[in-house]
Amino acid sequence: VRIHEHLVEDRRGPVTWLRIDREDALGALSRSLVTRLGSYFDELHTDDEVRVLVLTGTGKGFIAGADISEYDRVPQAAFDDYQRLSRRVFTALEQLPQFTIAAVNGYALGGGFEVALCCDMILASERAKFGLPEVKLGLLPGGGGTQRLARATGIRFAKEAVVTGAFYSAQEMFERRVVSRVCVPGDLAETARTTAESIAGNAPLAVREAKRLIDQGAQTPLDVGLALEQQTLSSLYATRDGAEGIAAFLQKREPQFTGK
Ligand code: CO8
Q1: What would the DSSP string read from start to end of the chain?
Q2: Which residues line ligand 1 at a C-beta cut-off of 6 Å?
Q3: Mean of pLDDT values over 158-167
Q4: Which spans of this chain does the record mark as coiled coil (predicted)?
Q5: Could you tell me the CATH number of the domain that includes residue 222?
Q6: Both 177 and 214 in a single domain?
Q7: What pLDDT score does 12 carry?
């Protein structure tokens, strides 16, 4: 289903695919596209049917960054307003309760790399290229690139990437632990599908709480994180799915999870 001029949604049970469809501009994020992504993530936040979101692009582009053509001498206030919008929308993606997978088919540059960094997992085609080239425009990454990349890879590589604006291969991003798996181009969608379905087949509350705990833990002292883990596990044990998972194992059958 087309939900925006450049956005196609495909719901397949608990897994939803969202494809940026703007091949002629390599998936560049127009302001209208970012706005639509924002309303989409807001709606998804309370959608219990969807458990995994796969975000992908079309052709040679995943997302080649902000649509540079929209920022030729716009008033400062409009530029600042766009930054605020991007920050809000990228954070909404990062904070979705669903598990999110970026299936990076091609260029993930600037805001495109930053979108991928807001996802829980990045799968990449061998053809993917990652980079933060904003310094080449006299700017800086404005969608969390200086912050999220540094947290993902450590500060030295992040500084290198930001000040050189270089493009990096999927393999290099794999070695830097940003990308989880590198696929031959024809296998990317299938790898994303099987990964998404296997996650969606696990107990929904367990998956959701695991994501939340790991994200929270990254921002808290260890003892606080460990206490949260215990509390959360304890409440999962009390759920119907907790009992079902254990019973199914002991009865040597597939569990029937209900998300309760
Ligand atoms: N915005 C708008 N159009 C784009 C963008 C973009 N980011 N990227 C590519 N396109 C368009 C090209 O203009 C071209 O259009 P046309 O056919 O009409 O000329 C079409 O996509 C195909 O691109 P190329 O012909 O350039 O294809 P190549 O294979 O030769 O090169 C590259 C591919 C290397 C990816 C090249 O297109 C490129 O360098 N793109 C720009 C990448 C970039 O700098 N991204 C960062 C943008 S800034 C950002 O994301 C941070 C936000 C900061 C705040 C916002 C202020 C801008």
Answers
A1: -EEETTEEEEEETTEEEEEE--GGGTT-B-HHHHHHHHHHHHHHHT-SS--EEEEE-BTTEEE-SB-GGGGSS--HHHHHHHHHHHHHHHHHHHT-SSEEEEEE-SEEETHHHHHHHTSSEEEEETT-EEE-GGGGGT----SSHHHHHHHHH-HHHHHHHHHH--EEEHHHHHHTTS-SEEE-GGGHHHHHHHHHHHHHTS-HHHHHHHHHHHHHHTTS-HHHHHHHHHHHHHHHHTSHHHHHHHHHHHTTS-------
A2: 25-26, 28, 64-69, 71, 107, 109-111, 133-134, 137, 139, 141-142
A3: 98
A4: none
A5: 1.10.12
A6: no
A7: 96
